[in-house]
Amino acid sequence: MAVRLFESKKHAAAYLQYRVSPTELISTIMNYMEKKTLKHFNLAVDVGCGSGQGTVLLAPYFTKVVGTDISPAQLEMALANSNPPNVSYRQSPAEELPFASGEVDLVAAMTAAHWFDHQRFLQEADRVLRPGGCLALISYTTDMELEYGDVSNRLNDICKEFYAALLPFRDPYLGSGSVRIYLDMFDSCSYPDKEWNECMLIKRTLPLNGYIGMVETFSSYQKLQKKDPDEAERLSNDIRNK
């Protein structure tokens, strides 16, 4: 069954503030779609949209974009954000999308599909997609690198300490890594023209608190924080000070 997380208002607000918007990945998706069809794109659905960072990036390419999420708190953050006029949001589970069969041009899930009931979601995506439509699942790993002058190596050693401390709190649902989950979903899709992109490096300039804040939105940190708030705060401060 699907996993429900990221549903507190405080977590949703942090998600909106600190998660990185996947601009380059949206361009990759649209380049793929434009190669396959010359038709005008009417409807895109961003499933598990969270606070809408990725949803709004789809707006220039479609007549209408709808973000769906199971979490009222995440949708509240999305609605409070500045949204283009063709973007709206609806509450629904990923496995029961509120769209007619063959109605959707693009079903996207950004850093979300690993939490869904995979087979039910894939069947539902296939139902709502028009013939020739596109299903795009994107995510990231913790294989992140920090760069700052001649201390880059030391910074990355500190990052690895952070991730190692959080590893025991990683949700067992994810197993050793979410890449395996996405590979399994990719393999189970019977679409003849599917494409797997192993890795795309994206570079962002962040203040230190931006990086710490992003890691604090991870489900593993949230689990530690729920279990032992003082230890979670101590860990964050220790990493920040280092």
Q: Spell out the helices and strands N to C.
A: HHEEHEEHEHHHHH
Class derived from helix and strand content: alpha/beta
Query: What proportion strand?
Result: 5-15%
Major sheet attributes: 5 strands, parallel
Question: Are there runs of 5+ residues with pLDDT below 50, and where?
Answer: none
* Beta-strand segment tally: 5
Instruction: Let me know the CATH homologous superfamily.
Output: Vaccinia Virus protein VP39
Please tell me the overall pLDDT.
Answer: 89
Radius of gyration: 18 Å
CATH topological fold name: Rossmann fold
Shape descriptor reads: globular
Estimate nothing, just give the exact number of structural domains.
Answer: 1
Please report the distance between the alpha carbons of the first and last residues: 40 Å
Percent helix: 40-55%
CATH architecture: 3-Layer(aba) Sandwich
| CATH C-level class | Alpha Beta
- Number of distinct helices: 9
The strand line-up of the biggest sheet is: 3-2-1-4-5
Organism: Lates japonicus
Pfam families: Methyltransf_11 (PF08241)
Domain Methyltransferase type: 45-136
Protein name: Methyltransferase
Descriptive notes:
The protein is α/β, with parallel strands linked by helices and 242 residues long. 42% of the residues lie in helices and 14% in strands. The chain has a single domain (9-241), classed as 3-Layer(aba) Sandwich (Rossmann fold), CATH 3.40.50. It is built from 9 helices and 5 strands, in the order H-H-E-E-H-E-E-H-E-H-H-H-H-H. InterPro entries: Diverse_substrate_MTase (IPR051052), Methyltransf_11 (IPR013216), SAM-dependent_MTases_sf (IPR029063). GO terms for molecular function: S-adenosylmethionine-dependent methyltransferase activity. This is Methyltransferase. Residues 45-136 form the Methyltransferase type domain.
